[in-house]
Write a structure and sequence with these properties.
It is built from nine helices and twelve strands. It is an alpha+beta fold. Keywords: Dioxygenase, Iron, Metal-binding, Oxidoreductase.
Length: 370
């Protein structure tokens, strides 16, 4: 099963927690363990008025494919409206997520992720690459949420499961549609992708659902919700609550805030789509910051190809002047590589130097294992 393949990728790289979990909701003073000094931030936050914001694209626009392709090349991220995901479903899944994170710590730890596991309650896996801890908590669902939900709510788990599964189904359909729009903008057809069947429909892809909680922080300027990273996916669909916190790195500009837009979902290009596009699409580096007064929630759908299918630059995008930048690798293998090398993962699978004008964002030595 795809979920087992994803989980297996982490078994060789267990996550060792430096100390017991803290209840971030009850802390009145920032612990030294969570202090991130401003000197460690290599890029400023953009505040100048002439810097463009992340594109907002209407999926019903007749030029949506071209607009999506342009955004993937220039930003690696865009906000999507008119995506046909029901507003009530977004509200329901946010309510269930908040219900989960409002549980007492002792209760949440009943569904704790094992050190070598991928699903359940816990801190972000990237935390092991930093000396300071993150001001956040998470809950990862791979496949059915039933097992962990029963641990959290022995007699009241059904609504959580039904809501999560409904959301997963809708996200899968949207992710598949977006994948073909992104590839279509590069002139790629369904016949060009070897891991598609004769009907042009993808084999069963893999996905994970990541719920994120960022409690109000007593000293937000010295804390970090989620450290800078790129996603180890083909694409990520992010639902962020109406509280700002997501920032993306724009080359030559710095960190740009992605303010919540009514009804919009944020789409990130991940490392695997960067590989498939032979570097044409930017695997966007992003982070989450926290604030002093408001509790922020987000929900990321991490979508990739079948876990055991080799991914490499697509043949149509390779020629004498544009050799393949990366060797073939499966998503399962890449997850293991990312768990070991973190932001040097892409460099470790590169087979030739980038062409002129191409920037590999993973060379900046600052980046989540999806």
């Amino acid at each position: 099963m795809p979920s087992r393949m994803i989980s297996h990728a982490f078994k060789a790289y267990p996550l060792n927690h430096p100390h017991k979990y803290l209840d971030l909701n009850s802390i009145k003073e920032l612990p030294e363990s969570h202090e991130w000094t401003s000197a460690s931030d290599e890029h400023p936050v953009v505040k100048v008025p002439n810097v463009k914001s992340v594109p907002i694209i209407d999926l019903n626009n007749k030029n949506a494919m071209d607009l999506i392709g342009h955004a993937c090349k220039k930003w690696g991220v865009f906000q999507l409206i008119n995506h046909n995901i029901c507003k009530s479903l977004l509200e329901d899944v946010e309510l269930e997520g908040k219900r989960l994170f409002s549980l007492p710590m002792q209760q949440k730890l009943k569904a704790a992720r094992s050190p070598d596991g991928a699903a359940g309650y816990g801190v972000a896996r990237i935390s092991s690459f930093f000396t300071k801890l993150l001001w956040s908590e998470g809950f990862t669902v791979i496949g059915s949420p039933l097992e962990h939900a029963r641990q959290l709510w022995p007699y009241d788990f059904q609504n959580f499961c039904d809501t999560i599964e409904a959301y997963q189904n809708q996200m899968k359909k949207l992710a598949e549609k977006l994948m073909w729009l992104m590839l279509g903008s590069l002139g790629i057809t369904k016949e060009d992708v070897k891991w598609a069947n004769n009907k042009g429909e993808s084999e069963e892809g893999c996905a994970a659902l990541q719920l994120n909680s960022y409690p109000a922080c007593p000293d937000p300027d010295r804390a970090m919700g989620l450290a800078p990273h790129t996603d180890s996916t083909a694409l990520t669909i992010l639902h962020q609550s109406n509280i700002s916190g997501l920032q993306v790195l724009r080359e030559g500009c710095g960190w740009v805030t992605v303010p919540p837009h009514p009804g919009a979902l944020v789409i990130h290009v991940g490392d695997l789509l960067h590989i498939l596009s032979n570097g044409l699409y930017i695997n966007v580096r992003h982070r989450a910051v926290v604030n002093r007064t408001q509790h922020r929630f987000s929900l990321a759908y991490l979508y990739g190809p079948p876990a055991d299918v080799k991914i490499s630059p697509l043949t149509k995008l390779v020629d004498h002047f544009h050799p393949p930048l990366y060797r073939p690798i499966t998503w399962s293998e890449y997850l293991g590589t990312k768990a070991k090398h973190f932001d040097n993962a892409l460099t470790s699978v590169r087979v030739c130097a980038p062409r002129n004008g191409f920037v590999d964002t993973n060379d900046n030595n600052s980046v989540k294992v999806g």
